[in-house]
């Protein structure tokens, strides 16, 4: 019970750190509620939302499986801009990828596109990975 409670709090903090950093809020659990009120409220909201999800009876492992599949589907859309910038000499200068790195990057991109296309059909055909 203590492990699950600790993980729930860590996950709430993680989500709040990401949100606060993205939105430019003051953040950090050591700053206290008065110095970082939006951060404090956000981690409490995330903790409450997690509690609501648990109370629905939905299997958390199943939620994790679906989130991993949808992360695989989104991966090419996040990898492509990085691949394009990494090879752009006008942007990266001397640190731009060379021929080998660019070729390997495009091979990897092709692999993740195939995986992204196959992810949802495989999820459905295996009944969520259950066989």
SSE topology:
Blueprint lengths: L1 H22 L8 H4 L1 H19 L4 H27 L2 H4 L6 H27 L6
Helix pairs in contact: 1-3, 4-6
Q: What spatial form do the alpha-carbon principal axes imply?
A: flat
Major beta-sheet overview: none
> Structural class of the helices, strands and pairings?
mainly alpha
Beta strands, count: 0
What is the string of helix and strand elements?
HHHHHH
Amount of helix: over 70%
Distance between the termini: 30 Å
pLDDT averaged residue by residue: 87
Low-confidence residue ranges? none
Helix tally? 6
- Estimated radius of gyration: 20 Å
Please indicate the percent range of residues in DSSP E strands (runs of 2 or more).
Answer: under 5%
Describe the structure.
The structure is a single chain. This protein is mainly alpha-helical and 131 residues long. It has six helices and no strands. Helix 4 runs antiparallel to helix 6. The longest helix is centred in the middle third of the chain and has 27 residues, at 60-86.
List keywords for this structure.
6 helices
